[in-house]
Amino acid sequence: MTLPGRIFLHSPGPTNIPDRVLRAMHRPCEDFAAPAFQDLARSCLSDLSRVFRTEGESFAFSTNGHGTWEIPLVNLVEPGSAVLVPLAGRFSGAWAEMAEKLGLEVITTPPDLGRAVDPQAVEDALRADKAGRIAAVLTVHTETASSARTDLEAVRAAIDAVGHPALYVVDAIASLAVERFEMDAWKIDCALTASQKGLMLPPGMGFAALGERAMQVAERCSHPRRYWDIQFRRGDAGYQWFHGTPPLQHVWGLREALDMIFEQGLDAVIARHARLAEATRAAVAHWSQAGTLDFQTVRPEERSNAVTAIRTTDGTDPETMRKRARERYNVVLGGGLGELQGRVFRIGHLGDLNEPMLLGALATVELAMRDTALACTEGGVVAAVRALSTR
Amino acid sequence: MTLPGRIFLHSPGPTNIPDRVLRAMHRPCEDFAAPAFQDLARSCLSDLSRVFRTEGESFAFSTNGHGTWEIPLVNLVEPGSAVLVPLAGRFSGAWAEMAEKLGLEVITTPPDLGRAVDPQAVEDALRADKAGRIAAVLTVHTETASSARTDLEAVRAAIDAVGHPALYVVDAIASLAVERFEMDAWKIDCALTASQKGLMLPPGMGFAALGERAMQVAERCSHPRRYWDIQFRRGDAGYQWFHGTPPLQHVWGLREALDMIFEQGLDAVIARHARLAEATRAAVAHWSQAGTLDFQTVRPEERSNAVTAIRTTDGTDPETMRKRARERYNVVLGGGLGELQGRVFRIGHLGDLNEPMLLGALATVELAMRDTALACTEGGVVAAVRALSTR
Amino acid sequence: MTLPGRIFLHSPGPTNIPDRVLRAMHRPCEDFAAPAFQDLARSCLSDLSRVFRTEGESFAFSTNGHGTWEIPLVNLVEPGSAVLVPLAGRFSGAWAEMAEKLGLEVITTPPDLGRAVDPQAVEDALRADKAGRIAAVLTVHTETASSARTDLEAVRAAIDAVGHPALYVVDAIASLAVERFEMDAWKIDCALTASQKGLMLPPGMGFAALGERAMQVAERCSHPRRYWDIQFRRGDAGYQWFHGTPPLQHVWGLREALDMIFEQGLDAVIARHARLAEATRAAVAHWSQAGTLDFQTVRPEERSNAVTAIRTTDGTDPETMRKRARERYNVVLGGGLGELQGRVFRIGHLGDLNEPMLLGALATVELAMRDTALACTEGGVVAAVRALSTR
Amino acid sequence: MTLPGRIFLHSPGPTNIPDRVLRAMHRPCEDFAAPAFQDLARSCLSDLSRVFRTEGESFAFSTNGHGTWEIPLVNLVEPGSAVLVPLAGRFSGAWAEMAEKLGLEVITTPPDLGRAVDPQAVEDALRADKAGRIAAVLTVHTETASSARTDLEAVRAAIDAVGHPALYVVDAIASLAVERFEMDAWKIDCALTASQKGLMLPPGMGFAALGERAMQVAERCSHPRRYWDIQFRRGDAGYQWFHGTPPLQHVWGLREALDMIFEQGLDAVIARHARLAEATRAAVAHWSQAGTLDFQTVRPEERSNAVTAIRTTDGTDPETMRKRARERYNVVLGGGLGELQGRVFRIGHLGDLNEPMLLGALATVELAMRDTALACTEGGVVAAVRALSTR
Asked: Which of B11, B208, C214, C283 could form a disulfide with B334 if both were Cys (CB 3.0 to 4.6 A apart)?
């Protein structure tokens, strides 16, 4: 079945790829060993550090978001050591599982799907680590399944309060170029991201940035590794930066995406995400007046600017509405994952998005709720318009 | 300045080009004399006749919409003869001017920018043509400047009532694959269209369909012509169909666009346009409750499904709002043309459009009106949602 | 049947479209009335004049090459006047026929398919025009059917020798950005070209440049016209430049193509064409040693840098070879047109071409000749290599 | 500097990406959890098994060629076990090094850069493994650095002769869809490939196929792993197949590339590679008559159909020629890697290639050799034409 018009992609990722980026990628391959490509690749890695807000080094991998999770685990943690993973939803859970599968000891703090990571729980867990076995704290900045955003400065403060030497490792997959993110100012030792969210690229690339302390740990780390090995990728030869053939088209796309971010201004990009997220929350708050919907993330300050998860409070399964939105109106929403299945739907609002795109999605959610008799107070989209208006 | 996100193109044309069509056109040239291309071109011409709903022949030209206007003037009207052009706005006016410039006598009926063509005026003009000098009645189906749609069956009835032998020539540029259009059933002798509206292509091609009677007139017509000559283009050689090098990429795009129309079903495409137009009108009716806005086209049955022109009734110049929509929100609206400048703005809703695209545009119009203090009753977009909902 | 690899397009047009140009055209439409597009369009028209090497004005049309022929006929020639068309092949013949169909008197000089236009014949014809009825001399710079290139300076000298006031109008469709072309220095009053040859664009646009004298004639000219009317297109509004909706994608492609030409340098582009053409001629000369092939254009100085027509001298029909090249090897060659059918094949070497592309085509011609037993002296491609080598 | 014309990419990879594939990838993202995408992904994996000629299962990874090497190492080899890597050049060497870095014991057979893997050496090494510590034999089918192709059936026979239970793992990165490859018939337990060679895609994906025996080993294997874990990827959910977000654009490209391979026929694709390689070798043999060049791979039956390495025998450094080819003519050749640097250049002839592309490259190599005075017998390209001709 051919649906007319454009797709509205409001799962929290992959996100809309700007035409400029798709165009930049529509190119035949070239000699990746030639200076032109090598200079371009180097400029991307260096500009990625600007986006991470770090003086540290950035690395690029042909992989996806989940693949990047292995990078700190094998470069920064000795076999036999432990990692602390404060749980807050599906993705921190999957990261913890990965650490375990790679043979590490995993200590977790208990999840609350209505909340972000609790810094106090992190502090407590670190304090309990008398033996100093925790090598790293692995924190997911934005849990897209629950839409909660953790306060990274508070987690940093918790680590500092204990004076624990663990490295601070952050999954910024759903937050880089979306939320304020200050790698160096917040003393984050290693940050990860992927191509298909705030960086507006097709999926297929992952990135890691490492600060000086992390680089030193990586140099000494005995964990067996090769493809993910940061040391190997620091070499002079362009061949090493990607450990083999670079994904040329993705790199061209990345260059274009970075150019777009800097043309708009990174701060302006982040401010735009905040503005569109605020409008989404205005719509949800309006709809929720009926008493049948609510924010999945309880505390306003923990609601992310990447995605908003909405819970039905009357037992309605929002899948009927979500299916309607996708199959009839070409609007893709996120569903509830894991325990939240059948109780939550999610509206992604990150990446290359503007007001009419968001308003079109919100109005269509309202339309699909109406079509499928999902109870709500009509007029959320008007609340969003009001939130966006400068007047 | 790089605006984030996608453009929302709601001038009444050019319209959104589906990704499939742009992809189909992203191809190097080929041997246009080879059978593969010639078969493809022939299939397009034949399928165009299906869209025109005619047993007649279709012709394709490298030109734009205005260029197609010359086709009937030089193929169907003897030098020295007259044409009757019932005026209803800017485009019928320009067509009349073209006829004059090409040396024809032009008889017009007086325009009313709040109305479509008045069939009675056509009937009167034809009755007055005792000498039988009128060779053709040139009617614009949808006047995009005023957004009025003429009742083509009623004009046909007017011609028939007089029994006048003039050919019936229709500009379907803004109506083909948008409105119900029945070339044979309505005894239209010649219909014109262009690539960039309902056919969802880039501008650069024009099309004409001629019924049997028109073909016979064209065969005998002594008007000097070559590029526009229908007879030459009827030849067996593919070279003749386009009078020289065919626009290969446009033809590939046309094939894809026609495939999309038939996949969705031509009737479904037309029904979708009606549905989206109805939603737009619901929004405008809601906004207009404030008494400061109104439909430019007075009669509901004359409001087109391609575009809606909205008049300010309190003297406000809508250009401020329109500029805001474009420069801040990337939403392109039509302005007032000619006499309507400074009094009218227009929302196009034709082509490859779906509900979230339209709702996003309507919500952003509401946002831009709010930003610029253009008075209206808030909530038009909710009225549109209601109009679209199946419940 | 899917042939592997890329097509080698060596008909003399349409030509290879650079990836950069195709990418630049892969864009959704925008608001063509906005300043951004209008500035871009203006820059293209002004840069086109640089390519024509004229201080005059350039105009752009949605049409094809044949369509541009009408421009001087209706803007520069009064109805009832005559044009002189020195014949040299199929295209000058078709232009003459067009002039006739548009109601003009046509005076021709006799064609010799092995030769370019004879300036003496032009001089004689002008001298014979005692009544001064000839309003324009229409000369095709490069006749792609025969591959002969006329000496435009010599034709100019012939007009000057007579002191005849006729305008000098040149079809530079196959020569602009291919051969040296000096509109002002050679006192050409009007020059025409199309998008799909040296300008490396898809077919679908035509261009005309008019010098001051031609502009003055156009201002007074009473020939009925509208779409082709130069006066109308000189207006201030962008809308007028294209007489309606501009072909946005083509204009974006044109901007990119002009950028590429200026990046390489127009002189360098022309020098490259000369170099590649010389290599082609070296190959043909080598093949011809067998005595069964020869240049269609007798005089070396009349052999164009756009295309080389090769005649079989032993009665072999080269179509078998040409079919083999296309169907088995994906190399498209030109065939013999009109009287030359069954006796000539043509190798186009214009547009976005480099050494490996040309050598690949020449080697494959040699391969296809071998496959189909078309007699020739083996090794033409090595002669081409030698001609290209700087050593 | 903008070079005119197309790039001729004759390093042995990445290779030419067909326009159809680039077009298929020029798409916005979609809902990868929807059935449409999942069905498509499944069809690709199943069709990949057809290309590998196996009844086994295929797996797809966002990674590059080097990344795929980790797959068998962590899924099929217990920590502490050994792998046998018969060395034949740079890539087998790098694979051995990776195995070592991942903590495995590595046994090698000595390399001879003029030869493929010696099956006798494999047999000897296996016979010497009295303790049965070798878990897998890792064989690179085609060593692109030396251009030698190993006889996989002979290696299989060597394993069988010893009756050693080691798994047979083959790197088919440069050979799949290039050379005859019969995974099941040759009892290969695991085969690897990447996207950017015979599969004609951009780099960024890697693939592994596992036969039944390898699957059983993987099920029991205790090697710590997650991203590369085959077991996890066998799950029912599409999410698992790619261990996270799938690279949608690459998958669309893969679907198109597989369609192209099957349209042409896999056997025909392989036969074409053999034909074009044979023509390349004919050119090289001709050039070598001067006594200053020779094949790097000594034995004719070991010369691969993917790439031909050419050695200078008089001490000339071919880099000057290679630089000339790239910088002046836009022809990219491979250089000598490692020990072969300064003594070898390589002509890749794999992927989406046809006769004119290859002949253009060969003629340009001849041209660049001439330009840079690299001694050879002139006329290699004519020898290639003869080799390709059916007559």
From this structure: B11
D39 vs A contacts (CB less than 8 Å): none
Q: Using an 8 Å Cβ cutoff, are A349 and A305 in contact?
A: yes
Structure confidence at residue B1 (pLDDT) = 58
CA distance C59 to C53: 14
Residues A203-238: b if buried by 16+ CB within 10 A, e if exposed: bbbbbbbbbebbbebbeebebbbbbbbbebbeeeeb
- Say what the pTM is: 0.97
Can you give the pLDDT at residue C236?
A: 82
**Domain ranges, ordered by start, for chain B:** 8-15+265-389, 19-263
- Reported as half-sphere exposure (CB side, CA atoms, 13 A), residue C232 has a value of 20
Subunits with 3+ Cβ pairs within 8 Å of A are B, C, D
List A60's β-bridge partners, or say none: A207
| pLDDT score of C1 | 58
Contacts of C372 in chain D (CB under 8 A): 391
AA letter at A282 = A
Name every residue whose Cβ is closer than 8 Å to that of residue D271 and which is 6 or more positions away in sequence.
none
Say how many residues make up chain D: 391
Contact C308, C281 (CB under 8 A): yes
- Distance between CA atoms of residues B260 and A170, nearest Å: 45
Taking 50 as the pLDDT cut, the residues of chain D under it are: none
* Residues 6 or more apart whose Cβ sits within 8 Å of residue D316: D292, D374, D375
DSSP-based three-state secondary structure for D347 = strand
Strands (E), A179-329: 190-194, 205-210, 293-295, 307-312
Query: Could you tell me whether strands A8-10 and A331-335 are parallel, antiparallel, or unpaired per DSSP bridges?
Result: parallel
**Three-state secondary structure call for residue A191:** strand
Residue C295 has pLDDT above 90, yes or no: yes
Give phi and psi for A57, each to the nearest 5: -100, 145
- Stretch (H or E) spanning B9: strand B8-10
Instruction: Provide DSSP, C112-125.
Output: -TTS---HHHHHHH
The Cα angle at residue B123 between residues B121 and B126, in degrees rounded to 5:
110
Query: Distance between CA atoms of B51 and B193, rounded to whole angstroms?
Result: 11
> What is residue C271's predicted lDDT score, i.e. its pLDDT?
98
> In Å, how far is C333's CA from the nearest CA of chain D?
13
Q: Hey, what amino acid is at C175?
A: S
Contacts C19 to A, Cβ<8 Å: 26-28
Contact assessment for residue D310 and residue D343, using Cβ atoms and an 8 Å cutoff: no
Would you call A385 and B381 a contact, using CB atoms and an 8 Å cutoff? yes
Q: Which of B242, B202, B199, B255 is nearest to B40 (CA)?
A: B255
Strand-pairing partners, residue D82, are: D105, D134
* Terminal-to-terminal C-alpha distance of chain A: 43
Fold of C8-15+265-389: Aspartate Aminotransferase, domain 1 (3.90.1150)
- Taking CA–CA distances from A242, the nearest residue in chain D reads D64
D23·B23 Cβ contact <8 A: yes
Tokens at D56, concatenated:
């086994």
Residue A353, pLDDT > 90, answer yes
In degrees and rounded to multiples of 5, residue D172 shows phi and psi of -105, 30
Count of A-C CB contacts under 8 Å: 16
Q: How far is C304 from chain D (nearest CA, A)?
A: 20
- Report H helices in B26-149: 35-52, 65-68, 70-75, 90-101, 119-128
Nearest CB to D245 within list A14, A70, A244: A14
Per the structure block, which two tokens stand in for B376? 């209206």
Architecture of C19-263 per CATH?
A: 3-Layer(aba) Sandwich (3.40)
The pLDDT of residue C237 is 80
Query: What's the Cα-to-Cα distance from B122 to each of A22, B130, B142, B150, C289, rounded to whole Å?
Result: 52, 14, 16, 12, 74
Helix (H, G, I), strand (E, B) or coil at B246: coil
Other residues' Cβ atoms within 10 Å of the Cβ of residue B378: 17
